[in-house]
Design a protein that fits this description.
Distance between the termini: 135 Å
Strand content: 5-15%
Largest sheet: 2 strands, antiparallel
Radius of gyration: 44 Å
Oligomer: single chain
Number of strands: 2
Number of helices: 3
Strand order of the largest sheet: 1-2
Structural class: mainly alpha
Order of helices and strands: EEHHH
Length: 148
């Protein structure tokens, strides 16, 4: 079988005498040799097959078929969700983006309000524009009642 695996083993003394045993084969070594040879043969075969033009065409065809099936499943799922009046993945993504935009705007408004409140508390009304110099009409102070 495997001549390199044939060995003579000296076993420990058993009741005062030496025992010799011939080991025909080491199952572990035989298995390792078998697996190593199988790997080498398979690698050579795989490299030969994968290096061919027909393999490349077959893989491209498989990828194209996979993409076609994926698109068909996506379209069917979208039709079923629409029929059940449920949002599709694209609808959920679009809504999520809108909510994110609203949240960003709200955070900006909150920061502006906090800054405005801080300015009022710091020493006065924060106003933009020219100073107001126009006085109300004289009869305004009497509550709009004339002399009459």
């Amino acid at each position: 079988m495997f001549p390199s695996l044939r060995r003579t083993i000296v076993l420990p003394r058993s009741q005062g005498r030496r025992v010799l045993a011939n080991e025909e084969s080491d199952p572990g070594a035989a298995f390792r040799d078998l697996v190593t040879q199988w790997e080498r043969n398979f690698n050579a075969f795989a490299n030969q097959v994968m290096g061919s033009e027909s393999f490349s065409r077959a893989m491209q065809g498989a990828q194209k078929a996979q993409l076609t099936v994926q698109q068909a499943v996506s379209d069917a799922m979208q039709r079923h969700l629409t029929a059940m009046n449920m949002p599709t993945r694209e609808d959920v993504i679009r809504i999520s983006e809108k909510v994110h935009e609203i949240d960003r705007r709200l955070a900006r408004i909150e920061s502006l309000l906090e800054a405005s409140t801080a300015n009022r508390e710091a020493g006065g009304v924060a106003r933009s524009g020219p100073a107001r110099t126009k006085q109300p009409p004289a009869d305004y102070s009497t509550g709009g009642k004339g002399n009459g």
